[in-house]
């Protein structure tokens, strides 16, 4: 019988068991198989894989060579090729190798999950569950297989630990996110409070500016009204004085001259006499002419001879 490598359970040293004997596959690959097993037992797994590959060129369907090559891949931690080779053994339908291939495919799945669990817990959990299926199949084929039963229970605990670890990580992540949200809310409220205070200060300054402008406008209005009131009062006083002089009779030439001077000083614009001053001057001249005519009439009456009427 041909020799094959047997992988031990996960928690113990995996020992390669090599045995000899006749096989239906003995012949063209037998020499390659012995050489490859020698490299394998010397822990020269890379060289062993090369020899097993040469054997498969002679007979691609040899399940013993496939199995031992899978074991060499496993030893050199090439779990992807190890799994592929063990599955090829299962596909061959070789009953003598089926239970061991199932068991060692479970081991390979376990190692694959272990290599990724730190970076991808979800993928690791899924691969651990695949390992359980192969361990279970191995136990169904060989119920007394204690290693398969032990590894099955061990992997179950690993999955539970990983789930608990993942829950803790999720909880810590949630706490960090909640803390971050609270800090952002706090910062946001602080910013809003500061913005509100800034707006209130700006509104207060704007109101003070508007109040100041309103006050200045009122003061200007009062000054304008005071100036207008003073001018009106001065004009009224001038009017009273003119009416008073008019009531006393026609002004003399001196008075007329003074009046004209007052008018010129008060209301005559630059470059000419005002309308009011011209009217007053005209009235003064008319009154002066009338007074002179009356005086002439009185003088003419005084010189006329007295006529005695005797009728």
What does it look like?
With 311 residues, the protein is mostly helical. Among the domains are: 30-166, Serine Threonine Protein Phosphatase 5, Tetratricopeptide repeat, CATH 1.25.40; 251-300. It is built from nine helices and no strands. Helix 3 packs parallel to helix 5 and helix 8 (253-266) packs antiparallel against helix 9. The radius of gyration is 65 Å and the shape is rod-shaped.
> Which CATH class of the domain at 30-166 is shown?
Mainly Alpha
Distance between the termini: 205 Å
Mean pLDDT, as a whole number? 79
Order of helices and strands: HHHHHHHHH
Structural class: mainly alpha
Q: Describe the main β-sheet briefly.
A: none
Identify the CATH homologous superfamily of the domain at 30-166. Answer: Tetratricopeptide repeat domain
What would you report as the Rg, rounded to the nearest angstrom?
65 Å
Helix share of residues?
over 70%
- What count of helical segments does DSSP give? 9
Descriptive tags:
311 residues; mainly alpha; Serine Threonine Protein Phosphatase 5, Tetratricopeptide repeat; disordered C terminus
Structure summarized in a few sentences:
The chain has 9 helices and no strands. With 311 residues, the protein is mainly alpha-helical. Among the domains are: 30-166, Serine Threonine Protein Phosphatase 5, Tetratricopeptide repeat; 251-300.
């Amino acid at each position: 019988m041909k020799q094959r490598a047997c992988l031990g359970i996960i928690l113990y040293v995996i020992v390669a068991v090599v045995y000899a004997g006749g096989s239906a596959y003995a012949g063209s690959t037998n020499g390659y198989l012995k050489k490859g097993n020698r490299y394998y037992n010397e822990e020269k797994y890379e060289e062993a894989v090369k020899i097993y590959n040469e054997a498969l060129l002679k007979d691609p369907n040899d399940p013993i060579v496939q199995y031992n090559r899978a074991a060499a891949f496993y030893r050199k931690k090439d779990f992807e090729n190890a799994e592929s080779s063990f599955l090829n053994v299962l596909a061959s339908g070789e009953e003598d190798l089926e239970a061991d291939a199932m068991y060692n495919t479970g081991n390979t799945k376990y190692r694959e999950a272990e290599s990724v669990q730190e970076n991808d817990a979800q993928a690791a959990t899924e691969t651990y569950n695949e390992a359980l299926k192969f361990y279970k199949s191995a136990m169904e084929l060989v119920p007394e297989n204690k290693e398969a039963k032990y590894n099955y229970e061990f992997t179950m605990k690993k999955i539970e630990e990983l789930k608990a670890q993942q829950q803790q990580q999720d909880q810590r992540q949630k706490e960090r996110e909640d803390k971050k949200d609270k800090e952002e809310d706090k910062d946001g409220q602080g910013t809003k409070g500061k913005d509100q205070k800034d707006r209130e200060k700006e509104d207060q300054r704007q109101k003070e500016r508007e109040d100041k402008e309103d006050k200045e406008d009122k003061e200007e209005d009062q000054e304008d009204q005071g100036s207008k009131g003073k001018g009106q009062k001065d004009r009224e006083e001038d009017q009273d004085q003119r009416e008073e002089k008019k009531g006393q009779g026609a002004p003399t030439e001196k008075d007329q001259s003074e009046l004209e001077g007052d008018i010129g000083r008060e209301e005559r614009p630059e470059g000419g006499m005002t309308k009011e001053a011209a009217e007053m001057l005209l009235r003064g001249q008319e009154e002066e002419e009338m007074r002179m005519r009356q005086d002439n009439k009185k003088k003419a009456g005084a010189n006329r001879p007295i006529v005695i009427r005797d009728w």
